[in-house]
Protein backbone atom coordinates (compact mmCIF):
# COMPACT_ATOMS: atom_id res chain seq x y z
CA UNK A 1 0.00 0.00 0.00
CA UNK A 2 1.33 3.45 -0.87
CA UNK A 3 1.13 5.92 1.96
CA UNK A 4 0.28 9.24 0.31
CA UNK A 5 0.61 12.16 2.70
CA UNK A 6 -2.65 14.09 2.60
CA UNK A 7 -2.62 17.71 1.56
CA UNK A 8 -4.43 19.62 4.34
CA UNK A 9 -7.65 21.36 3.30
CA UNK A 10 -9.48 24.10 5.21
CA UNK A 11 -12.73 25.90 4.33
CA UNK A 12 -14.54 29.01 5.47
CA UNK A 13 -18.16 27.96 5.86
CA UNK A 14 -20.99 30.48 5.59
CA UNK A 15 -23.83 31.63 3.41
CA UNK A 16 -23.18 33.85 1.58
CA UNK A 17 -19.42 33.41 1.73
CA UNK A 18 -18.15 34.85 -1.55
CA UNK A 19 -17.36 38.21 0.12
CA UNK A 20 -15.06 36.61 2.73
CA UNK A 21 -11.46 37.83 2.76
CA UNK A 22 -10.34 34.70 4.60
CA UNK A 23 -9.41 32.69 1.45
CA UNK A 24 -7.18 35.56 0.29
CA UNK A 25 -5.57 35.83 3.72
CA UNK A 26 -4.88 32.13 4.26
CA UNK A 27 -3.90 31.70 0.61
CA UNK A 28 -1.30 34.44 1.07
CA UNK A 29 0.10 32.79 4.20
CA UNK A 30 0.21 29.36 2.50
CA UNK A 31 2.26 30.84 -0.38
CA UNK A 32 4.45 32.91 1.93
CA UNK A 33 5.45 29.93 4.08
CA UNK A 34 5.61 27.46 1.18
CA UNK A 35 2.99 25.18 2.74
CA UNK A 36 1.20 22.63 0.59
CA UNK A 37 -2.43 23.15 1.51
CA UNK A 38 -5.64 24.77 0.32
CA UNK A 39 -8.15 27.15 1.90
CA UNK A 40 -11.47 27.51 0.10
CA UNK A 41 -14.84 29.28 0.50
CA UNK A 42 -17.73 26.84 1.06
CA UNK A 43 -21.32 28.08 0.80
CA UNK A 44 -23.44 25.76 2.95
CA UNK A 45 -27.15 25.84 3.76
CA UNK A 46 -28.10 25.35 7.40
CA UNK A 47 -29.75 22.02 6.56
CA UNK A 48 -26.46 20.62 5.23
CA UNK A 49 -24.21 21.94 8.00
CA UNK A 50 -23.99 18.88 10.23
CA UNK A 51 -23.63 16.29 7.46
CA UNK A 52 -20.97 18.41 5.75
CA UNK A 53 -18.99 18.87 8.98
CA UNK A 54 -19.10 15.13 9.69
CA UNK A 55 -17.95 14.31 6.16
CA UNK A 56 -15.23 16.93 5.77
CA UNK A 57 -12.52 15.23 7.87
CA UNK A 58 -12.88 12.12 5.68
CA UNK A 59 -12.32 14.32 2.63
CA UNK A 60 -9.01 15.67 3.91
CA UNK A 61 -10.20 18.78 5.74
CA UNK A 62 -8.29 19.54 8.95
CA UNK A 63 -10.56 22.35 10.05
CA UNK A 64 -12.73 25.30 9.12
CA UNK A 65 -13.56 28.87 9.84
CA UNK A 66 -17.23 29.58 10.41
CA UNK A 67 -19.03 32.77 9.51
CA UNK A 68 -22.60 34.11 9.34
CA UNK A 69 -25.12 32.42 9.72
CA UNK A 70 -23.51 29.27 11.18
CA UNK A 71 -21.42 30.61 14.08
CA UNK A 72 -23.97 29.68 16.75
CA UNK A 73 -25.28 26.46 15.13
CA UNK A 74 -21.84 24.81 15.05
CA UNK A 75 -21.84 24.73 18.86
CA UNK A 76 -24.69 22.18 18.69
CA UNK A 77 -22.56 19.98 16.43
CA UNK A 78 -19.08 20.30 17.97
CA UNK A 79 -17.89 17.59 20.37
CA UNK A 80 -15.48 19.82 22.31
CA UNK A 81 -16.15 23.52 22.94
CA UNK A 82 -13.62 25.96 24.40
CA UNK A 83 -14.67 27.99 27.45
CA UNK A 84 -14.54 31.24 25.51
CA UNK A 85 -16.68 29.89 22.65
CA UNK A 86 -19.22 28.67 25.21
CA UNK A 87 -19.22 32.05 26.96
CA UNK A 88 -19.61 33.95 23.69
CA UNK A 89 -22.20 31.47 22.40
CA UNK A 90 -20.55 31.20 18.98
CA UNK A 91 -17.50 29.67 17.30
CA UNK A 92 -15.43 30.93 14.37
CA UNK A 93 -12.72 28.24 14.31
CA UNK A 94 -13.12 24.47 14.07
CA UNK A 95 -10.43 21.83 14.37
CA UNK A 96 -11.09 18.33 13.05
CA UNK A 97 -9.04 16.28 15.48
CA UNK A 98 -7.26 13.03 14.74
CA UNK A 99 -9.54 11.26 17.25
CA UNK A 100 -12.54 12.21 15.07
CA UNK A 101 -13.83 14.92 17.40
CA UNK A 102 -14.80 18.38 16.19
CA UNK A 103 -13.33 21.06 18.43
CA UNK A 104 -14.86 24.56 18.40
CA UNK A 105 -13.17 27.78 19.48
CA UNK A 106 -13.77 31.49 19.16
CA UNK A 107 -10.73 33.64 18.34
CA UNK A 108 -12.58 36.91 17.55
CA UNK A 109 -12.01 38.41 21.00
CA UNK A 110 -8.32 37.53 21.06
CA UNK A 111 -8.02 38.97 17.53
CA UNK A 112 -9.72 42.17 18.66
CA UNK A 113 -7.27 42.64 21.57
CA UNK A 114 -4.18 41.65 19.53
CA UNK A 115 -5.10 44.28 16.93
CA UNK A 116 -5.32 47.01 19.57
CA UNK A 117 -2.07 45.94 21.21
CA UNK A 118 -0.28 45.95 17.85
CA UNK A 119 -1.53 49.32 16.63
CA UNK A 120 -1.90 51.16 19.96
CA UNK A 121 0.79 49.65 22.19
CA UNK A 122 0.29 52.34 24.84
CA UNK A 123 -3.40 51.35 25.27
CA UNK A 124 -4.18 50.51 28.89
CA UNK A 125 -7.50 48.63 29.17
CA UNK A 126 -7.73 49.36 32.90
CA UNK A 127 -7.37 53.13 32.36
CA UNK A 128 -11.13 53.69 32.34
CA UNK A 129 -14.56 52.54 31.18
CA UNK A 130 -15.21 51.28 27.67
CA UNK A 131 -18.16 52.52 25.58
CA UNK A 132 -19.39 49.78 23.26
CA UNK A 133 -21.98 50.41 20.54
CA UNK A 134 -23.84 47.37 19.23
CA UNK A 135 -24.81 44.07 20.86
CA UNK A 136 -24.69 41.54 18.01
CA UNK A 137 -22.52 38.45 17.69
CA UNK A 138 -19.26 40.37 17.35
CA UNK A 139 -20.07 42.46 20.43
CA UNK A 140 -20.24 39.31 22.56
CA UNK A 141 -16.66 38.41 21.63
CA UNK A 142 -15.46 42.00 22.15
CA UNK A 143 -17.10 42.28 25.57
CA UNK A 144 -15.74 38.93 26.77
CA UNK A 145 -12.26 40.03 25.68
CA UNK A 146 -12.50 43.50 27.24
CA UNK A 147 -13.51 41.97 30.58
CA UNK A 148 -10.66 39.45 30.34
CA UNK A 149 -8.03 42.17 29.85
CA UNK A 150 -9.29 44.19 32.82
CA UNK A 151 -11.60 46.93 31.55
CA UNK A 152 -13.28 48.13 34.75
CA UNK A 153 -16.72 49.00 33.30
CA UNK A 154 -18.48 48.58 29.96
CA UNK A 155 -21.14 51.07 28.91
CA UNK A 156 -23.24 49.35 26.29
CA UNK A 157 -25.89 50.70 23.91
CA UNK A 158 -27.73 48.92 21.14
CA UNK A 159 -30.57 49.93 18.81
CA UNK A 160 -32.54 46.95 20.13
CA UNK A 161 -32.24 47.29 23.90
CA UNK A 162 -33.24 43.68 24.64
CA UNK A 163 -30.04 42.41 23.01
CA UNK A 164 -27.93 44.65 25.25
CA UNK A 165 -29.90 43.49 28.31
CA UNK A 166 -29.17 39.89 27.33
CA UNK A 167 -25.45 40.69 27.32
CA UNK A 168 -25.80 42.24 30.77
CA UNK A 169 -27.31 39.03 32.12
CA UNK A 170 -24.66 36.87 30.41
CA UNK A 171 -21.60 38.96 31.30
CA UNK A 172 -22.57 40.47 34.64
CA UNK A 173 -22.34 43.65 36.63
CA UNK A 174 -19.48 45.27 34.70
CA UNK A 175 -21.99 45.88 31.89
CA UNK A 176 -24.05 49.06 32.19
CA UNK A 177 -26.76 49.17 29.56
CA UNK A 178 -27.53 52.68 28.32
CA UNK A 179 -29.95 54.14 25.82
CA UNK A 180 -28.45 55.13 22.46
CA UNK A 181 -29.48 58.77 23.15
CA UNK A 182 -27.08 58.74 26.12
CA UNK A 183 -24.11 58.24 23.78
CA UNK A 184 -22.59 61.57 24.79
CA UNK A 185 -22.49 60.54 28.47
CA UNK A 186 -21.22 57.06 27.53
CA UNK A 187 -18.25 58.53 25.68
CA UNK A 188 -17.49 61.08 28.41
CA UNK A 189 -14.53 59.68 30.39
CA UNK A 190 -14.30 56.48 28.31
CA UNK A 191 -10.76 55.21 27.72
CA UNK A 192 -11.92 52.86 24.96
CA UNK A 193 -14.72 53.39 22.42
CA UNK A 194 -15.79 50.56 20.11
CA UNK A 195 -18.20 50.33 17.18
CA UNK A 196 -19.38 46.74 16.90
CA UNK A 197 -22.43 47.60 14.77
CA UNK A 198 -22.42 47.18 11.02
CA UNK A 199 -23.02 50.95 10.61
CA UNK A 200 -20.31 52.57 8.53
CA UNK A 201 -19.85 49.59 6.22
CA UNK A 202 -19.84 50.40 2.52
CA UNK A 203 -23.50 50.61 1.49
CA UNK A 204 -24.79 51.27 5.03
CA UNK A 205 -25.38 54.59 6.82
CA UNK A 206 -22.46 55.96 8.87
CA UNK A 207 -22.31 55.59 12.63
CA UNK A 208 -22.99 59.12 13.84
CA UNK A 209 -22.20 59.76 17.50
CA UNK A 210 -21.75 62.99 19.47
CA UNK A 211 -17.98 63.07 20.01
CA UNK A 212 -17.82 66.40 21.89
CA UNK A 213 -16.94 64.63 25.15
CA UNK A 214 -14.36 62.25 23.59
CA UNK A 215 -11.03 62.40 25.40
CA UNK A 216 -7.95 62.84 23.18
CA UNK A 217 -6.40 60.08 25.34
CA UNK A 218 -9.11 57.64 24.28
CA UNK A 219 -8.60 54.72 21.95
CA UNK A 220 -11.36 54.45 19.33
CA UNK A 221 -11.78 51.36 17.20
CA UNK A 222 -14.24 50.09 14.63
CA UNK A 223 -14.89 46.45 13.72
CA UNK A 224 -15.91 47.54 10.23
CA UNK A 225 -12.99 47.36 7.78
CA UNK A 226 -14.69 48.15 4.48
CA UNK A 227 -13.94 51.04 4.18
CA UNK A 228 -10.69 50.70 6.07
CA UNK A 229 -11.16 54.03 7.79
CA UNK A 230 -14.83 54.66 8.56
CA UNK A 231 -16.33 58.13 8.93
CA UNK A 232 -16.60 57.38 12.66
CA UNK A 233 -12.83 56.81 12.90
CA UNK A 234 -12.10 59.89 10.76
CA UNK A 235 -14.12 62.07 13.14
CA UNK A 236 -12.56 60.52 16.25
CA UNK A 237 -9.08 61.08 14.82
CA UNK A 238 -9.93 64.72 14.10
CA UNK A 239 -10.64 65.08 17.81
CA UNK A 240 -7.18 63.80 18.67
CA UNK A 241 -8.05 60.24 19.70
CA UNK A 242 -5.92 57.24 18.72
CA UNK A 243 -7.85 55.18 16.17
CA UNK A 244 -7.44 51.56 15.08
CA UNK A 245 -9.27 50.07 12.09
CA UNK A 246 -10.93 46.64 12.05
CA UNK A 247 -8.76 44.90 9.47
CA UNK A 248 -6.16 43.81 12.02
CA UNK A 249 -8.85 42.01 14.03
CA UNK A 250 -9.67 39.92 10.96
CA UNK A 251 -5.98 39.10 10.47
CA UNK A 252 -5.28 38.29 14.13
CA UNK A 253 -8.38 36.12 14.63
CA UNK A 254 -7.18 34.00 11.71
CA UNK A 255 -3.67 33.33 13.01
CA UNK A 256 -4.41 30.68 15.70
CA UNK A 257 -6.45 28.58 13.25
CA UNK A 258 -3.74 28.75 10.60
CA UNK A 259 -1.16 27.61 13.16
CA UNK A 260 -3.30 24.66 14.32
CA UNK A 261 -4.15 23.48 10.80
CA UNK A 262 -0.90 24.08 8.98
CA UNK A 263 1.69 24.01 11.79
CA UNK A 264 3.12 27.48 11.27
CA UNK A 265 2.43 30.60 13.34
CA UNK A 266 1.85 33.26 10.67
CA UNK A 267 3.09 36.83 10.95
CA UNK A 268 0.47 39.56 11.02
CA UNK A 269 2.41 42.42 9.49
CA UNK A 270 2.21 45.14 6.85
CA UNK A 271 2.80 42.61 4.07
CA UNK A 272 -0.19 40.58 5.30
CA UNK A 273 -2.39 43.67 5.38
CA UNK A 274 -1.28 44.66 1.90
CA UNK A 275 -1.95 41.17 0.53
CA UNK A 276 -5.50 41.14 1.86
CA UNK A 277 -6.22 44.71 0.75
CA UNK A 278 -5.01 44.04 -2.78
CA UNK A 279 -6.99 40.77 -3.16
P1 LIG B 1 -24.85 41.14 13.91
O1 LIG B 1 -24.86 40.05 14.92
O2 LIG B 1 -25.81 41.10 12.77
O3 LIG B 1 -25.07 42.53 14.72
C1 LIG B 1 -25.24 43.75 14.03
C2 LIG B 1 -25.20 44.90 15.01
O4 LIG B 1 -25.33 46.13 14.28
C3 LIG B 1 -26.36 44.88 16.02
O5 LIG B 1 -25.94 45.47 17.22
C4 LIG B 1 -27.39 45.76 15.30
O6 LIG B 1 -28.36 46.31 16.16
C5 LIG B 1 -26.50 46.83 14.75
N1 LIG B 1 -27.13 47.56 13.65
C6 LIG B 1 -27.32 47.12 12.38
N2 LIG B 1 -27.94 48.09 11.65
C7 LIG B 1 -28.14 49.15 12.49
C8 LIG B 1 -28.73 50.43 12.35
N3 LIG B 1 -29.25 50.83 11.17
N4 LIG B 1 -28.73 51.26 13.41
C9 LIG B 1 -28.21 50.87 14.61
N5 LIG B 1 -27.64 49.66 14.80
C10 LIG B 1 -27.61 48.81 13.76
O7 LIG B 1 -23.42 41.31 13.24
P2 LIG B 1 -21.98 41.02 13.90
O8 LIG B 1 -21.53 39.67 13.54
O9 LIG B 1 -22.04 41.42 15.33
O10 LIG B 1 -21.05 42.03 13.06
C11 LIG B 1 -21.12 43.42 13.28
C12 LIG B 1 -20.09 44.14 12.44
O11 LIG B 1 -18.78 43.74 12.85
C13 LIG B 1 -20.17 43.79 10.93
O12 LIG B 1 -19.90 44.96 10.21
C14 LIG B 1 -19.06 42.79 10.74
O13 LIG B 1 -18.54 42.80 9.42
C15 LIG B 1 -18.02 43.31 11.72
N6 LIG B 1 -17.10 42.27 12.19
C16 LIG B 1 -15.78 42.50 11.96
C17 LIG B 1 -14.86 41.58 12.40
C18 LIG B 1 -13.39 41.83 12.17
O14 LIG B 1 -12.61 40.87 12.21
N7 LIG B 1 -12.99 43.07 11.98
C19 LIG B 1 -15.28 40.40 13.06
C20 LIG B 1 -16.64 40.21 13.28
C21 LIG B 1 -17.55 41.17 12.83
P3 LIG B 1 -29.74 45.52 16.44
O15 LIG B 1 -29.44 44.49 17.47
O16 LIG B 1 -30.66 46.58 16.91
O17 LIG B 1 -30.17 44.94 15.12
Essential attributes:
279 residues; Rossmann fold; 2 domains; 6-stranded mixed sheet; 12 strands; 34% helix; 18% strand; globular; binds NADP nicotinamide-adenine-dinucleotide phosphate
Report what the structure shows.
The protein has 279 residues and is α/β, with parallel strands linked by helices. It has two domains: 125 residues, Leucine Dehydrogenase, chain A, domain 1 (Rossmann fold); 137 residues, NAD(P)-binding Rossmann-like Domain (Rossmann fold, 3-Layer(aba) Sandwich). 34% of the residues lie in helices and 18% in strands. The protein contains ten helices and twelve strands. The protein has a six-stranded mixed β-sheet with strand order 2-1-3-5-6-4. A six-stranded parallel β-sheet has the order 9-8-7-10-11-12, sandwiched between helices. The longest helix is centred in the C-terminal third of the chain and has 16 residues. It is globular and about 60 Å long. The N and C termini lie far apart (41 Å). It binds NADP nicotinamide-adenine-dinucleotide phosphate (NAP). The site of NADP nicotinamide-adenine-dinucleotide phosphate has 23 residues, from helix 5 and helix 9. Belongs to the shikimate dehydrogenase family. It comes from Paragemmobacter kunshanensis.
Which compounds are bound in this model?
A: NADP nicotinamide-adenine-dinucleotide phosphate
Q: Tell me the structural class.
A: alpha/beta
Oligomer: single chain
Integer count of domains = 2
Q: Which strand order spans the largest sheet, edge to edge or round the barrel?
A: 2-1-3-5-6-4
Mean pLDDT: 96
CATH 4th-level superfamily of the largest domain: NAD(P)-binding Rossmann-like Domain
Percentage of residues in strands: 15-25%
Number of strands: 12
Amino acid sequence: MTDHPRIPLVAVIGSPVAHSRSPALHGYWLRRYGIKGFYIPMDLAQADLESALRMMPRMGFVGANVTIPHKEAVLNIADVISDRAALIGAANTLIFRKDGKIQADNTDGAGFIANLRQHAPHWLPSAGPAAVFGAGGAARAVIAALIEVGVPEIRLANRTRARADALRSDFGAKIHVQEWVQADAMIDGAATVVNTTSLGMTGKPDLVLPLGSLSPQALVTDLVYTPLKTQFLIEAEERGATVVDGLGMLLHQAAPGFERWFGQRPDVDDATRAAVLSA
